[in-house]
Design brief:
By secondary structure, the chain is α/β, with parallel strands linked by helices. It has helices spanning about 15-25, 35-45, 65-75, 90-95, 110-125, 125-135, 140-155, 160-170, 175-185, 190-200, 220-225, 225-235, 280-285; strands at about 5-10, 30-35, 50-55, 80-85, 100-105, 210-215, 250-255, 265-270, 270-275. It folds into three domains: about 5-125, Rossmann fold (3-Layer(aba) Sandwich), CATH 3.40.50; about 125-200; about 210-285, Glutaredoxin, CATH 3.40.30. The chain binds FE2/S2 (inorganic) cluster (FES). FE2/S2 (inorganic) cluster binds near residues 220, 258 and 260.
């Protein structure tokens, strides 16, 4: 349960605030609402929040101005944005300011709960001590190679994404310790490195299994019953979204739309797309992916 996590939802559309409140309160969060940036700042001057979920386009004090204020005056508060246009251009400035992630509009309860849950988990991590321990898990030669690669990109414009791609190829994923080395090596704020890592779906912050299951929690799939499919997968594999099976055979990821809404509900395993998938088919589908001999 997620008790005592306080979240402020800021949107000039009251229906969005009400929806977030309804969905997130059932997840155990404490939710307040504000109708714009000005009201949000006044509210935050009186009460501390773990997370702020804000729209970008709002009259008077907009989302970017609000995020700047939060970063300066309430740096411990994490920020998620809600946007109808999740392209890099529209949220570029927000990414540079160090938001944790974004929620696409319109959103389903499952997507909102997933994005908020991951943001809360990320915020809770006691990074410095755990990072020090995790660093020992990587062979020194790998760390040295990583540092060498980062150094070779330093001062090159637009180098962050290529460095993240290369680092993921080398390490297999992008844990906090790797992001921290990249941040330090390229002299880019850690929050920006994290924002970019979580924005692009081809980056992962957790180790992946031999087969990657991507389950779509977008609106069309949600309406067609993807939650029951997800429940069956979780039951079969005994893992949650973001998890990996003990034998490293499967990892399970949630995505917001696979671009095949007409075939909903949809899931993808590696490069295979399964359309109109139902809970009854899950066991048979998973059985097709035999363990990979090592
Ligand atoms: S919503 Fe699932 S594929 Fe688009």
């Amino acid at each position: 349960m997620t008790d005592s996590i306080k979240i402020l939802v800021v949107d000039d559309e009251s229906v969005v605030v009400r929806s977030c409140k309804r969905i997130l309160e059932t997840e155990g969060y404490e939710i307040d609402g504000a109708s714009g940036g000005r009201e949000a700042i006044i509210t935050m001057e009186k009460k501390a929040y773990d997370l702020v979920i804000t729209d970008l386009k709002m009259p008077e004090v907009d989302g970017i101005t609000l995020i700047r204020w939060i970063k300066k005056s309430r740096p411990d508060t994490g920020v998620l944005i809600i946007t109808g246009y999740p392209s890099q251009e529209t949220i570029k400035e927000a990414l540079e300011l160090g938001i944790i992630d974004y929620v696409p509009k319109p959103f389903t309860p499952a997507v909102l709960a997933d994005v908020v849950g991951r943001a809360v988990e990320w915020k809770k991590k006691k990074v410095p001590e755990e990072e020090a321990k995790k660093e020992e898990e990587f062979p020194p030669s790998m760390i040295a190679e990583l540092d060498k690669m980062i150094k070779s990109h330093r001062n090159k414009p637009g180098c962050l994404i290529p460095v993240l791609q290369r680092a993921q190829e080398m390490v297999g994923y992008l844990p906090p310790i790797v992001q921290k080395r990249i941040s330090k090596g390229l002299n880019i704020p850690a929050a920006e490195v994290h924002s970019v890592t979580s924005f692009y779906s081809f980056f992962t912050m957790t180790p992946r299994g031999d087969h990657i299951i991507k389950i779509c929690l977008g609106t069309a799939c949600y309406v067609k019953g993807i939650e029951e499919v997800l429940g069956k997968i979780k039951e079969n594999l005994r893992i949650d979204v973001g998890g990996i099976t003990g034998d490293k055979r499967f990892s399970l990821e949630a995505v917001r739309c696979l671009g095949a809404c007409g075939l909903a509900p949809v899931m993808v395993i590696d490069h295979d797309t399964y359309s109109a998938v139902s809970p009854k088919k899950i066991t048979q589908i998973l059985d097709e992916y035999q363990p990979v001999s090592k």
